[in-house]
Amino acid sequence: MVTSFGDRHAAILGHWPFHHANGLRQLAFEHLLKVQKLKQLVKQSVSITTADDINIASSEYPTYLKAAYKADKIPDKPKIMGLIDKDIPAAQMEKLMLANLKVSADDLRDLTIKHAQAAKEYLLKTDAIDPTRIFITTAKTGTDEQKKLPDNRVDFILGSH
After folding, report:
1. Which residues have C-beta within 8 Å of that of residue 130, sequence separation ≥ 6?
2. What is the reported pTM?
């Protein structure tokens, strides 16, 4: 594919399918747990710069799930006497937290731009394309043509010299 670019300009179009919202919601959920572990590590004077650098072992998962659930401001949390968070099974905590996480069209667009940027960087690694001739743009959504195509894609558009 790289040889087909030649000296033409190339646009990388990203698409943001709404079914990717569940994946983003899951990442946001995992981030909430990692933030709880980060808080604990900071108290222990462990040097970590971001929650993204943290891994949660399966044995630690219940602890950080419960901490994240307590910290999360879920409007319909089950309460005891209307005041104290009721202990509920892990599956119910996960379900309530995931349902409370919102993913916007902007979040999906940002994910799409990251995908397109990764495609651009891959193409530029080959040194076969002049970096000034390749750029990222977003696609119009909802057209009849696009509805027929798979959502999980990045389109490459070649321009003339």
Report:
1. 7
2. 0.59
